[in-house]
Specification:
Blueprint: H1 2-14, E1 21-25, H2 26-41, E2 47-48, H3 51-54, E3 57-61, H4 62-79, E4 86-92, E5 96-103, H5 135-145, E6 149-155, E7 159-167
Parallel strand pairs: 2-4
Antiparallel strand pairs: 1-3, 4-5, 5-7, 6-7
Helix pairs in contact: 1-5, 2-4, 4-5
Length: 170
C-alpha cells in the first residue's frame, strides 16, 4: 500500500498519471467504499447521506477519488482509539458535494494543520504508527486534480474533521 501511494504521488507530481473520468453517483459509490473500509477495519463506520445527496453526481476518476476518501478514512482509523467514533457524512451546496470524515482521535495542533499536507514532512515520526506521511498530501493532490480541495478542522485531544469538496456534475 505504501509503495502504491508513493507511485501514485510521483505520477501526480510528474503529471503523467492516467486519469479515467466517469460520472459517479455519490450515494452508492460512497456507501460501498465506507462499508468496505469499515469491514476491513473490523468496525462499522456510520455514514449519513441525506436523500437529496444520494443521487448527486460528481465527475472524476473512480480509482483516484476512492483513494482520496480511503486516505481520509484510514487516517481517522489510525489516529482514533479503537472505541473512538468515526463518522462520514455528505453535504451539498449549490455547486459542490462535501464528503466529511470526522473522528474523535488525537487531533492536530493549529500550527500543524497546514503541515500535514506537506509530502516532505511527517509529523511525529517517532510514533509507532505505520505510514510515511504520504496519505494526506496524496488526497489533497487528487482533490486538486479534480478541481476540489480538502479542509481540516481539528482540536488536539478531541479529534479532526476532514472535508473533501468536489464539484457537482452538471
Amino acid at each position: 500500500m505504501l509503495l502504491d501511494q508513493w507511485l501514485v504521488a510521483n505520477r501526480l507530481a510528474l503529471g503523467n498519471l492516467d486519469v479515467h473520468p466517469a460520472t459517479l453517483t455519490l450515494g452508492p459509490w460512497l456507501s460501498a467504499l465506507v462499508q468496505s473500509r469499515g469491514a476491513a477495519a473490523g468496525r462499522p463506520i456510520p455514514l449519513y447521506i441525506p436523500p437529496s445527496a444520494a443521487a448527486a453526481k460528481i465527475d472524476g476518476d473512480l480509482q483516484l477519488l476512492s483513494t482520496a476518501v480511503l486516505q481520509l478514512l484510514d487516517n481517522a482509523l489510525k489516529y482514533s482509539p479503537r472505541d473512538g467514533a468515526i463518522q462520514v457524512g455528505v453535504f451539498l451546496t449549490d455547486q459542490e458535494a462535501g464528503i466529511r470524515v470526522t473522528d474523535t482521535g488525537i487531533g492536530i495542533a493549529p500550527q500543524d494543520q497546514e503541515l500535514i499536507f506537506d509530502r516532505s514532512l511527517r509529523l511525529n515520526p517517532e510514533t509507532s504508527l505505520p505510514g510515511m506521511g504520504l496519505g494526506l498530501p496524496l488526497a489533497r493532490d487528487i482533490a486538486q486534480l479534480h478541481g476540489g480541495r480538502i479542509e481540516v478542522v481539528s482540536t488536539p485531544g478531541q479529534g479532526s474533521t476532514f472535508t473533501l469538496w468536489l464539484s457537482l456534475a452538471p
